[in-house]
Please model this.
Amino acid sequence: MKKYLLLFIIAVFVMSCSKKVEVKGKITGGSPLERIEFVEASGVGTLPLINIGLDKDGNFSGNFEAPKDGMYVINYANRQNLIYLERGQNVNISGNGMTFPNEYVITGDAKKNNDFLQATQKFLAEYAGKVNLNQLMAGDEAAFLKGVRKVEADINKNVDELAKKNNPSSGLVTWKKNDVKVTILNLLANYEMSHGPMAGNPSYKSSKAFKDYETKLEDDKDAMVKTIPLYRQYLLVKMTPDFQKYAEANSKGKADITTSELFAQYLKTKKEISQTAKDYLLAFVMAQADIHPTTPANKIDKIKKIIDTDIKDATIKSDLLKMQVAITGLKIGEAAPEAPLVKQDGKAYKLSENKGKPYMLFFYASWNPYISEATVPVLKEVVNFYKSKMNFVFVNVDDTKDQFVKTSNSLLKGIQGVNVYGEKGMESEIAKKYGVYGFKLPCFVIIDKDGKIASRSFVNLGEPELVTVLDKLTGLSAPKVDPNMQLQPGLQVDPSAQQPANPQPAPTK
Model:
């Protein structure tokens, strides 16, 4: 009896400590060409945690490791919405293909939280139509403060009423109340910046009452900076004038200095800012300013050094490094990672079989709408031109091996190369090691004859830099083409752009 009791206790403990979220549901009228992605809304890397496909009837299911209990973004068909998830939950979500995820129905463990969340969003949409914001912003300071205090009180009253009705988790209620504070803080910041010019009083300075109210709203700074990206942007807007002065004084004669370097140095002078806030703010600036597809190798090395030395939070470090690999690719000169791959006949395949000859890795999936019309015709030309001097490995990341066989047989028929499959598709080891996500499919990486990374990740076969790498490794000289002819719309997406756009410390040079 004791044995079974112990097993039961262990099982309960494992379940309670699970970090996975199980998701399933149905999108009526959904398309198998569209994918569902979940992204941590408060994270710094904003990379999808999972990419889920729909079957022909619109059904879907999957699970992912949730970094923490909190707010997540659902992406589908170029539309987004928020959902509150807790680790260990089983979530049922459904909707219509025309409106999902702008509108969705939740059942299962996440119902109470998301009924509360949707009700607060509905109230805010209706309440915004009743508030004359222009009149509020144009009033004198005393009237403005009275008005925004009433806005804060009205919203919090609704939050409390809805919390009693829906019984959401305390974490969500705390998040919502902090979200209200951030909304009010942004109104204060806008008033402080615009009131002088609007009122014809360029010498306007906010009063002590104004500053005291601002301080009161920031009574939970670290929690807000961890969970609300808009608060990070608010802090950056507030410190931008001071940072720009610092940057002007400290960037003279340093042509190669990056915004991230300057901002990291600037933060070291700010003793009043907590290390938590510094980590999130620096990560935000790095993601926005210096991590992008064309970042030179020497700047990538600088970015990695800053991540290693200045970011103290281990999760933020990890997320930034994943984001850097996803956007710029693996480090040139490092050994190309091996990962399990299989051919159509089920036999295992190793990338090292190409050693002695350079090769191109081409990652693709059948659900990417641009492949057949924009990529394959150009790929044929590239393969035909370089095939005498290099190999081509076509890595499929569809959901099933059967789909891989169908896709490779129809899409790549007659193109010289090795067709292989990464088991579990987008969740495969090969996809994770090479930083392959839905937003960058299809993509290409060049490996040299010694099995080392020879290029960054490309999403466009016509890019001059890619052609230069191919010519160098093969000794051939490809005809020059207009790279714009090969651009694949919608694929060159920087995941950091999922962060809401707002002013931030700007590059000085």
